[in-house]
Amino acid sequence: MPDLPMTELDDDFDPMPEAPEAPADELCCGSGCEPCVWDLYQEQLTDYRARLAAWQARQDGKAGAA
């Protein structure tokens, strides 16, 4: 990615995090793998919820400052 002059950067760009996609049921083999695809999904979901809460707090801060 090329370096852009600071004048072309948008400091307000703060997209909402995207939720992870749940794995298809057939991706789990049911043999108790460690980690299971569902374990990995739960970790991604926990991370997403934390990122979403932080994003929402930033948005609330921006709205309060306006």
UniProtKB/TrEMBL annotation:
Residue intervals of the Oxidoreductase-like domain: 16-56
Domain of life: Bacteria
Signal peptide, first to last residue: none
Annotated region described as Disordered, given as residue ranges: 1-23
Membrane-spanning parts: none
InterPro entries linked to this entry: Oxidoreductase-like_N, OXLD1
PANTHER family: OXIDOREDUCTASE-LIKE DOMAIN-CONTAINING PROTEIN 1
Name this protein carries in UniProt: Oxidoreductase
Native organism: Crenobacter luteus
